[in-house]
Description:
This protein is mostly helical. It has helices spanning about 25-35, 40-50, 65-75. It is globular and about 30 Å long.
Amino acid sequence: LVPQPFVVPDGDKDWPEDTWGLRLGARVNAIRSQGTFVKTNPVRRQELDELGFEWELPAEGKKRGRKKKVENEALQGPAPPGMLDGGLQGDSAS
């Protein structure tokens, strides 16, 4: 899947020159969320289907923005004090 902020790199010979600088992530997002470029053009939609375009994001990819960022940072950081010892600090059970 193409991440939302992805832009085709300028000067990258792995991509056709006429695509350099294209905000591909934004385009893909617009196609998925609003039907942009395909809503009134069934031929384009069929072409994307034939290429294997993913019309729906996997469930874990649907969280967005600040909430997702905060959740990811929390999951990557250290465990809260006492959590690995069987309880949290200040918890009367520990």
